[in-house]
Amino acid sequence: VGYAIDIMNCMMNNGYGLNVKICSLILSSMCEQKDSEGVDVMGFLGEMQKLGFCPGMMDYSNVIRFMVKQGRGLHALNVLIKMKGEGIKPDVICYTMVLHGVITEGDFKKADQVFDELLVLGLVPDVYTYNVYINGLCKQNKVESGLMMISSMDELGCKPNLITYNILLKALCNNGELRRVRELMREMTLNGVGVNLQTHRIMLDGLFGKGNIEEACVFMEEMLDKVLVRFCSSFDEVIYGLCQRGLVCKAMELLKKMVDKNVAPGAKAWEALLLS
């Protein structure tokens, strides 16, 4: 990319006009650099604008993605503001990326503003936008607001997917609301959303974390029966918990089932059994 910029500068020094396609290509390549440390995307964009380059939707999208990838969500928001100031209406993808960026930086007030703004502009959030926003609400422990978002999604004809439910399930488990977790899982079934390994792990961790070892064992057996899994660290925790409570026979039963299913127990499980 550095050589490409040098060649472009040579072209301009020799009287060639600025090529918009070349500028867009270089900008895109800069944003895709694996080693992005020290890459001054905004500096390049500013210099090219001084020379008459008018960045379009794709150019700004690439810059926003670059900023978010670097963990500079608030800079991505500034790019969005600059984009609007130049008369380019951002699409829902731009807003979703910025939303993800500011949530990652922990600025939830800005996240609310970004989400509200995209609705005011008449943009329709897709499931990815909702998932990002719901995740932000759950990070603030606003699980009720997150659950209410499912109703908003239904009203707009946007069906929640497995990621949506897993985000909410994890938040409810963290709060110890296992009854509501089960209700939400029933809702998933009614809506035709199947569970995956991540869903089972969320439930298993939630049950184990609240000391409900018996139900955690039942869930662990369900995982072994229904889910193709080679290793799950949560299994070790359950076996360890059983050994701590003196339920070594039950721990041995589960260990045998794991081995029969070609699931590799970890060091913590073996150590717990040996010490028991």
What portion of residues belong to β-strands?
under 5%
What is the approximate shape? elongated
Query: Radius of gyration, rounded?
Result: 25 Å
User: How many beta-strand runs?
Assistant: 0
SSE succession: HHHHHHHHHHHHHHHH
Major beta-sheet overview: none
The average pLDDT value, as a whole number, equals 87
Distance between the termini: 61 Å
| Overall SS class | mainly alpha
Report the helical percentage.
over 70%
Q: What can you see in these coordinates?
A:
This protein is mainly α and 276 residues long. The chain is built from 16 helices and no strands. The protein has helices at 2-13, 20-31, 41-50, 57-69, 73-85, 92-104, 108-120, 127-139, 143-155, 162-174, 178-190, 197-209, 213-226, 233-244, 248-260, 267-275. α8 (127-139) packs antiparallel against α9 and α12 runs parallel beside α14 (233-244). It is elongated, with a radius of gyration of 25 Å. It starts with a helix and ends with a helix. The mean pLDDT is 87.
